[in-house]
Amino acid sequence: MTFTVDIKGSLSPPTTAYVYPFGLAYFNYQCSRYNLVDEEGGADSEDEKEHLSESDIVIDVKYIKSLEAKDWKDQDHYRVLGIPDLRVEASTKDVKKAYKYMVLKCHPDKSQGNTKVDEEAFTCIQKAYEQLCYIDGKRAYDSVDPRFDDDVPNITEHNKQNFYKVFGPVIASNAQWSMNKNVPMLGSDSDEIDYVNDFYNFWYDFKSWREYSYLDEEERDKADCKEERRYLDKLNKIERIRRKKEEMTRMRQLVDICYACDPRIKAFNEDRKKRKLEAKLAKQEAYRLEQEALRLQKEEEERIRHEEEQKRIQLEKERAEAEKKERQKQNKLLKGERKKVRDCVKNNNYFCTNN
User: Fold this and answer.
1) What is the DSSP string of 36-96?
2) Below-50 pLDDT ranges, the chain
3) Which pLDDT score is estimated for 48?
4) Neighbour tally for 245: CB within 10 Å
5) Coil, strand, or helix at residue 297?
6) What is the separation of C-alpha 69 from the centre of its chain, rounded to a whole number of angstroms?
7) Core vs surface per residue 252-282: b (16+ CB within 10 A) or e
């Protein structure tokens, strides 16, 4: 069976359409291209890596049973899930694995004692899992991890003498907040000046993913209306910005103190001063030699001018002496001729008498 289709009209002319790349794959590509840690656990997220085995999970029964569900935000979520040492390095798979293990071991149905205490503990375990199972929640809690030491070493003689021992661990622990995964470490005395400059350039321009939503004092979920939620969001945002500024000030202070105590900077500065002084002395010596050469040249020119002047004076003196001798000779000849004339006149009696 054959069908005949009549096409009426014509096709529209081709047009140019701009297609903009988007989507998770493109986002992950850009993150890997620029070595960025994405905010949602994208290309550079460690969530796909599992670090945990069941033998690593430590159940702190005494601690868990001492908790109350109403104070769940004050608890150590990693300790509750039995991974107190993994902390920020824990992946989503690690958290899920630890939670499943804790559920099997600590479920109230398996309790042989105080059911109320066990239910409170189990609620705390659930809260810990709810906080850590998602990237945003985990990052919010990691940002205010109670085990993290925010203290900054002071500028003391002891810290200067033990610079790498004191500041090395501090720099390494603060490197976890970097949005760029290629974080330069403190290094050693053998580092070149270029590495040291790159290190401080990176840390002075440090970009941190640390945020403080976990510390929000105003709970927007308890608001009665949309306007109240907006107001609470505004208060929380102001407080987060304030804490973020304090964190950036702390990081800047850490880098400033590290820079002030760094023996490499001191050595580089001393070497630069030494080279600058050597260059200055060399310049002064070159100037002195130039002036000395100018002085000698001037003295030589003065000596030559003086010799020429003496020669000129001597020549003039000799010429004057010669002229004098010539005049004396001419005068002597003249006197002789005069004498001959007188003698001739006298001998020939050419003189007349007085009469």
Assistant:
1) B--TTS-TT--TT-----GGG----HHHHHT--GGGGGGS-HHHHTT-TTTGGG--HHHHH
2) 34-47
3) 52
4) 10
5) helix
6) 46
7) eebbebbeebbebbeeeeeeeeeeeeeeeee
CA–CA separation, 298 and 309 (whole Å):
16
Cβ pair 232, 220 in contact under 8 A: yes
Global pTM value: 0.67
CA angle 340, 343, 348 (to 5 degrees): 125
- Token pair 């927007």: residue: 220
Angle between helices 92-106 and 115-132 in degrees, nearest 10: 170
CA atoms within 13 A on the CB side of 251: 23
The DSSP bridge partners found for residue 249 are none
Mutual angle of helices 226-261 and 163-174, in 10-degree steps: 160
CA of residue 179 relative to chain centroid, distance: 16
Distance between CA atoms of residues 57 and 79, nearest Å: 10
- Residue 179, pLDDT score: 93
Amino acid identity, position 135: I
**Residue 168, burial from CB neighbour count under 10 angstroms (0-12, 13-18, 19+):** middle
Q: Phi-psi region for residue 23, left (φ > 0), alpha (ψ -120 to 50) or beta?
A: left
- Provide the β-strand partners of residue 178: 208
Q: Estimate the crossing angle of helix 135-143 against helix 92-106, to 10 degrees.
A: 90
Q: Find all residues with CB under 8 Å of 149, minimum gap 6, and list them.
A: 170, 173
**Tell me, what's the pLDDT at 111?**
67
Other residues' Cβ atoms within 10 Å of the Cβ of residue 240: 16
Of 74, 60, 48, 65, nearest to 128 by C-alpha is 74
- Which of helix, strand or coil describes residue 178? strand
Residues 6+ positions from 78 with CB-CB distance below 8 Å: 84, 86, 87, 90, 128, 132
Tokens 């500065």 locate to: 269
CB-CB contact of 258 with 167 (8 Å)? yes
pLDDT at 46: 44
